[in-house]
Amino acid sequence: MTTSQQLLAAATLIFVGAVVQALLALKSGSWKQTRGQFMLMTLGFLLQTGFIYLRGQEVRQCPIRSLADILVFIAWSVVMLYFLVGSAYRLSLLGLFTAPLVTIMHAMAFLNGFAPYPPKGPVNALVELHIALALISYASFALACITGVMYLIQERMLKLHQIGGLFYQLPPIQGLSQAIQRLVRFGLLLLSIALAISFALHLPMTKTGHVVFAWIVWGLYAVIAFLMWRHFTSPRRTAWLAVVGFILPFISLWIVTHA
Amino acid sequence: MPEPTDNRSGLVCVGLNYKTTPVEVRERLAFPEAQVPEAVQQVRSLPGFEESVVISTCNRVELYVAHSLASGDHGHAALRDFLVRHFQLQPEHAEALVLYNLDAAEAARHLFRVVSGLDSMVLGETEIFGQVKAAYKTALDTGTTGRTLNKLFQQAFTVGKKVRNETTIQRGSTSVGSVAVDLAEKVHDLKQCRVMLVGAGEMSRTCAQSLLSRGAKSIIVSNRSYDKAVELATEMKGTAMKFDEWEHSLHEVDVIISSTSAPHFVIKPEQVDQVMRKRRWEPLLIIDIAVPRDVDPAVNEIEGVYLYDIDALQAIADEGRRERERQLVACERIIEEQLEKFGFVKTTLS
Fold it and tell me: Are residues B151 and B186 in the same domain?
């Protein structure tokens, strides 16, 4: 195992630790956002960053060209957005919901293996920016998906009068609904910029699989954002759309990296 | 089993609370806030007394004193005489006065329990923490505290915070009013929350007051008797509305509290369904306190509507109380550990 992979393994263990700690605290009924929990997420993020840096050194380019690397990059972006969104919306439990997804992404990256990259020509900064923005937009959709799960849990507890431990920890559904909308819009904006860059790169859309899929994902989230904006559907349904919608970008990653 | 040590023998507490003394006596023995600074000085100036703190709330009056008397009993007697004299109690009232007299470790344990909300009428309530803090500050500012009481009260605040941080004694709602607030907080940002009272019963008034005290944005009151609606709206700085008009404003509010005496459903699914479309699916919390119920239960099936009737609210409040009672053992354990840590009690090997 290389040093970079050792860092990633350590990050994975830290995120597992964050989940276990939060679950135990939730079970005992005394969960609250602790400095320890925040420190675990920060440490995990730093280790992820260390992995991306070392991996970049190994492959001599931005490590976003294999499925394993893409998964780690998205997981890193998810944690980064969690730090931005979690505090902005006081979504104190977002870390608990984020850490399992990040752990799964790391595990899938390990299962897929970190193969060496084939030699390539000089680095094109626009191409790197195009890919990085697209992946950060996917991370935003991932966080919208996680927030959607939180919304659906809280909404169900309110509807069925199940007022228990988790109910007191989760934020108000209106706040969650707003967070979903903003994450979808933010992701859509980043993906739009990434796709605009693809025009500048003169990438033929029909011959570039990942751009085609990116357009499909863009179309899906454009529809979701429009439905949310015009209030054509209830917040519960839009939460479902944010959760189910993330399946498409997730699958598309697989397809484009194996095509 | 912990046993008391003698290192704080100069500490006594004399007091009465809602468990020992009925309200008609308590109200006679309460120190008005403005008179507390004078009272702490009077207590401290009693012979043999070196430090004093007076806690006076609607549920308790307690005097904490550090003294250099021969025994705690002398301190108890002197404090009792002070209360009788200060409040000019008639002999028969003085005779009937029931006080608890606590020394050293018992006094510290009692104060730790009070600060933690374990001795409160509503178990685990947090207001008492602030009240004790204010009482201590008054004594501190007046200059009637010294080494013993400063240390004791600082320790008490540490224990109070520890109990709240390490247990869930303050979590959950124990009254219908606080359940309503908790629910509203989990649906909306309370500061943006607009409330409508349909019917002006006592319990709906309590719920509305709880919501307003926690920052609800505005209130509309609609009642069959318009005068009563105006009266209540004025009291709550809200708006009164004629009873035949409330339906037209349903889409403008986020929380509806209904408590009419109508023998049939006043709020029906078809009305709410239309309202939700107008509201663009913004969530709506409906609290139905009326018996017979005002709101058709089918309303809860509508997307984005959360309906709670009086039984549902009561069940949540009961569960909140049970949950707090379950936490009592853990709270008492923390207090005993802290009493030991601060040297009030020592643990025997047995």
Answer: no
Q: Which residues of B are catalytic?
A: 58
Same domain, B185 and B122: no
List, for residues B50-69, the tens digit of each pLDDT value: 999 999 988 899 999 999 98
Distance CA A153, CA A144 (A): 14
A35 with A142, same domain: the answer is: no
Q: How many CB pairs under 8 A join A and B?
A: 56
* pTM given for the model: 0.77
Residue B7 confidence (pLDDT): 46
Give the nearest partner residue to A30 out of B168, B188, B312, using CB atoms. Answer: B168
Q: Identify the closest residue of chain B to A234 by CA–CA distance.
A: B281
* ipTM, interface predicted TM-score of the complex: 0.80
Tell me the C-alpha distance between A70 and A109, whole Å. Answer: 8
Q: A148 and A249: one domain? A: yes
Residue B110 lies in a domain: yes
Q: What is the dihedral of CA B89, B90, B91, B92, to 10 degrees?
A: -110
Q: Which domain holds residue A153?
A: 129-259
Q: What residues have CB less than 8 Å from B85, skipping those under 6 apart? A: none
* 8 Å CB contact of B306 and A29: no
Q: Answer whether residue B340 is part of any domain.
A: no
Residue numbers in chain A where pLDDT is lower than 50: none
* B315 at A interface, C-beta within 8 A: yes
Best of B167, B169, B185, B186 to disrupt the A interface (most A CBs within 10 Å) is: B186
Tens digits of per-residue pLDDT, A105-125?
Answer: 999 999 988 877 776 667 778
Interface of B with A in 149-208 (CB under 8 A): 165-168, 171-172, 179, 182-183, 185-189
Q: In terms of DSSP H, where are the helices of chain A? A: 3-28, 35-59, 67-88, 94-112, 125-159, 165-169, 173-200, 209-230, 235-245, 247-258
Residues A171, A57: one domain?
no
Domain that holds residue B253: 176-314
Restricting to B residues 241-280, those with a Cβ less than 8 Å away from any Cβ of A are 280
